[in-house]
TrEMBL record:
This is Phosphoribosylglycinamide formyltransferase. It catalyses: N(1)-(5-phospho-beta-D-ribosyl)glycinamide + (6R)-10-formyltetrahydrofolate = N(2)-formyl-N(1)-(5-phospho-beta-D-ribosyl)glycinamide + (6S)-5,6,7,8-tetrahydrofolate + H(+). GO terms for molecular function: phosphoribosylglycinamide formyltransferase activity. One of its GO terms (biological process) is 'de novo' IMP biosynthetic process. It comes from Sphingomonas sanguinis. The lineage of its organism: Bacteria, Pseudomonadati, Pseudomonadota, Alphaproteobacteria, Sphingomonadales. PANTHER family: PHOSPHORIBOSYLGLYCINAMIDE FORMYLTRANSFERASE (PTHR43369:SF2). Its EC number is 2.1.2.2. GO terms for cellular component: cytosol.
Amino acid sequence: MSADQPVKVGILISGRGSNMQSLVAASREAGAAYQVALVASDKPEAAGLAWAKEQGIATFALSPKGIGKPAYEAAIDQALRDAGVQVIALAGYMRLLSGDFVARWQGRIVNIHPSLLPLYKGLDTHARAIAAGDATAGCSVHVVTEELDDGEVLGQAEVPILPGDDATALAARVLVEEHRLYPQVLTEFVRR
């Protein structure tokens, strides 16, 4: 997207923002391909927002309750554009984006999903992998399209499912890989 200037990334979160923190850490390394211009959330009380503020990163928070999806997405869209955002990274953002929003940012939204896509789109991915008797689980970074967890897969990381694993134990091991994979794939994505 740009060889000289770091690409401006907006990160959307809904919770503690651990993946957001790993993206921010990578953005602060020498020669980083992107900078975090805004962290936005649908939950004003999200712990990740407080962390981002402490780090001196611009934040935006708005609950969609009572205003409806179109007005909510219009406000998020405007905040991203006002911050000069070029690429959106979803990091534990627990809302489905409308087709209109995705179309406005076509090919410029990425997401991290806790499964080896195309397996286990949606929620409860770790429990579903264990219940299926899979030998491995993992995470995927993909381009966001109108279809849930369906865009081009940009990178994946695998972890073994161990005897006696429950969804919580497996999620913790997958999260370690998410924190490693997402900054690496986002860097590659903004450079292409």
